[in-house]
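Duplicate of #3305? Posting structure anyway:
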């Protein structure tokens, strides 16, 4: 059986996507709540999801929950979280062996699905809020994650750069949320936010894996029938980031050994796959312009990579360099983009880029989770295409389209995180 894909609107802001391929021996259920990002809800949504998978009203501890899941052939229930442009998609997912492959065809998928629904709709809550012990533990996990984000200097530079790239847009907020917001999380208030999430957020349900999963679809939809739903937020995933009139530059000095250079380019050229191909040819592969020239030939960077965010129409280049090479690296990155815009690339380079991108796309058929992620991304683009269909489209992208895509990219933001002067810092202390 080849992949069977369908998407159905079930009403009340609930979408159901079925993705079946009988080569898989497992079935998975993903339930996402989609809400626009703001600086307050990132931390609270993260904490809510962590608490929901820790315990519920029937199974009061994560240890007991894990024991029951292990008994069901090593099934799992976990947090499901991703971002799509200005939106956060937060929820839970379950995975288990298909009933057809259990000993004696034991019916476990329904039990796992019910456990998932218990975690989601019947959490461990009393008059004081979520289970207090777990609330404190998981809140500290959120705080620790925010604090730890500064230790990954590459990630930290991108987080700080995004605040300027997307200033005034929901996407300016870090995936970790802010420390002040995390520290301020309140148990009773969190319960109200949880209820609001169930009531008003867009819901996306994915049932994926072996087609035997179909028999559990009705029990999932019936569970939602008992949930009040109103004022559902309308969703438009593709909200292009406005191009600044002039590029803005920022520099921050921290305790680091290496300079991090982040450059953002914005465009009005609206061809997702031409832009993706161009970004990969520019800096997304070992044979790309940035890797071959900036990193290898000129040795200006330890790494230098480009990625294109189609929901925002933004290409971000991030690199690690010695401080004395930062300006040279910036100039050479701009020079390589100009080279692409002038058609300075061979047909072989373009063909290799197409093949590399298609290989990556087709690998999404290898696992249930990757297959689910592929189709989730597809409908954020208002499309319903298989990896094979997109690869066919990619192979038709022309040199002229790549040139147009490169020429349309405008430098928008430069953010530099550089090592502080140790002597100066010592004197200040």
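Output from current build:
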């Amino acid at each position: 059986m080849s992949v069977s894909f369908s998407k159905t609107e079930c009403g009340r802001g609930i979408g159901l996507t079925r993705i079946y391929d009988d080569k898989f021996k497992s079935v998975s259920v993903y339930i996402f709540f989609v809400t626009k990002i703001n600086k307050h809800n990132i931390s609270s949504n993260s904490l809510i999801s962590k608490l929901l998978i820790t315990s519920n009203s029937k199974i009061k501890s994560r240890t007991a929950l894990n024991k029951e899941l292990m008994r069901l052939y090593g099934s799992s229930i976990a947090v499901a979280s991703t971002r799509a442009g200005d939106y956060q998609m937060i929820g839970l997912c379950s995975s288990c062996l298909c009933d057809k492959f259990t000993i004696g065809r034991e019916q476990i998928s329904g039990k796992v699905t019910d456990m998932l629904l218990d975690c989601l709709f019947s959490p461990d809550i009393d008059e004081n809020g979520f289970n207090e012990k777990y609330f404190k533990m998981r809140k500290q996990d959120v705080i620790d994650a925010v604090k730890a984000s500064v230790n990954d200097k590459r990630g930290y530079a991108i987080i700080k750069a995004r605040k300027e790239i997307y200033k005034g847009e929901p996407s300016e907020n870090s995936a970790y949320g802010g420390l002040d917001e995390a520290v301020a999380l309140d148990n009773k208030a969190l319960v109200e936010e949880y209820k609001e999430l169930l009531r008003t957020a867009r819901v996306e349900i994915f049932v994926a894996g072996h087609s035997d999963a179909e028999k559990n679809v009705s029990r999932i939809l019936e569970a939602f029938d008992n949930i009040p739903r109103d004022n559902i937020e309308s969703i438009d995933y593709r909200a292009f980031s406005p191009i600044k009139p002039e590029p803005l530059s920022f520099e921050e000095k921290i305790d680091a050994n290496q300079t991090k250079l982040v450059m953002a380019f914005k465009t009005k050229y609206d061809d997702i796959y031409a832009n993706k191909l161009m970004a990969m040819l520019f800096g997304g592969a070992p044979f790309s312009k940035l890797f071959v020239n900036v990193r290898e030939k000129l040795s200006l960077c330890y790494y230098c990579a480009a990625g294109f965010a189609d929901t925002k129409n933004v290409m971000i280049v991030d690199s690690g360099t010695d401080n004395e090479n930062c300006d040279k690296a910036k100039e050479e990155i701009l020079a390589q983009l100009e080279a692409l815009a002038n058609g300075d690339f061979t047909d072989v380079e373009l063909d290799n880029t197409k093949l590399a991108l298609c290989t990556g796309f087709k690998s999404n058929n290898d696992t249930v989770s990757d297959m689910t992620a592929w189709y989730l991304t597809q409908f954020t683009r208002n499309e319903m295409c298989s990896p094979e269909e997109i690869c066919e489209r990619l192979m038709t992208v022309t040199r002229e389209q790549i040139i147009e895509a490169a020429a349309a990219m405008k430098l928008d933001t430069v953010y530099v995180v550089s090592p502080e002067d140790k002597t100066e810092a010592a004197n200040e202390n």
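Confirmed duplicate; merging threads. Residues 56 and 123 are 4 Å apart (CA to CA). The longest strand covers residues 26-36.
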